[in-house]
Amino acid sequence: MEVMRRVREQLILSRELLTMPDPPGARSPEPAALARDLIICYGAAELALAAICVQLDCVPDRKYVCLPDYFDSLGKKANAKGAVQEADYVGELHAVRSNAQLRALPVDAWRWSRAKRETLEHVATWCQEFLGLGLFELDSVAVLPPTKRADGAAAKEHLGALARADPEKRRFECSGSADIHLGLVGLLEKGRVANLSPGGCFVQTAFAFEVGEKMEMTLHVNRMSVRVTGKVVHVPSVAPGGRKGAFSGMGVQFTNMSAGARARLKELIGDLKTTGDSRVIRRSIRS
């Protein structure tokens, strides 16, 4: 099975966290060592489950996602043989980590003395059950080939053709900012809104996004804020040598927004149609 490059890298990182040697002189039964191991285990498990969800296109559609949410979403997408047993371990790990880290409750040293090894075994099971891949064979697993990408001029021409075929896809140049919240790990990135349409936008950002990646964004244009969810449908070309060209960023198709956000977006598009630029609206409208 071919996987996304970032998915493979994240699974390898999860494996490395769980196999890295303990600090010199560390003894697992000590409370501090147990707490450290549980934090590592939880982070590694979350990295693995989130990566698998991305590969299978079933990232939980929630603002705040915890470990069991990823596994619940996977359970609805694929029927793993040992799903019940795995779900029990995910719930147990989530509970003990929360009790230890957030409530400062003591950890059962006998139960969790081999936490890293046990979590590694479960991560290996998830890779095999859901992706059909061996955790320790990921370094040689083929990754999906890069999407064929047009350069900036070709991309603009492509957008122009879409606009002529469907006026709703016509994009208007503007100037604004974007707060990008990634569903994968909750990471917040910044970008600049270069153009906008009722169905999508182009955001310039230095972060390396991939086609198909989903995200939540808050767009700030003309003193107006619009919160949307979307997915990447286009990534422009990369310059020779791996350097991003001047037209770096991503084309995003909107997949969901509230009625209020849609009304604000419609009003903003109307203003851009009228002025042909991104002049500042004199009134401020709350998101």
What are the salient characteristics of this protein?
alpha+beta, Thrombin, subunit H, six-stranded antiparallel beta barrel, 6 strands, disordered C terminus
Give the structure's gist in a few sentences:
Helices cover 43% and strands 18% of the residues. With 287 residues, it is an alpha+beta fold.
Number of DSSP strand runs: 6
Q: Which structural category fits the helices and strands? A: alpha+beta
- Measured by DSSP, the beta-strand proportion falls in 15-25%
Domain module count = 2
What oligomeric state do these chains adopt? single chain
Helix content bin: 40-55%
* Gyration radius over CA: 22 Å
How would you state the average pLDDT, rounded?
A: 76
Biggest β-sheet strands, sense, barrel: 6 strands, antiparallel, barrel
Contiguous low-pLDDT stretches (5 residues minimum) are 147-156, 161-167, 238-247, 277-287
List the helices and strands and how they pair.
Elements: H1 5-19, H2 31-55, H3 67-77, H4 83-101, H5 109-112, H6 115-131, H7 152-165, E1 172-182, E2 188-197, E3 200-204, E4 214-221, E5 224-234, E6 250-256, H8 259-275
Antiparallel strand pairs: 1-2, 1-4, 2-3, 3-6, 4-5, 5-6
Helix pairs in contact: 1-2, 1-6, 2-3, 2-4, 2-6, 3-4
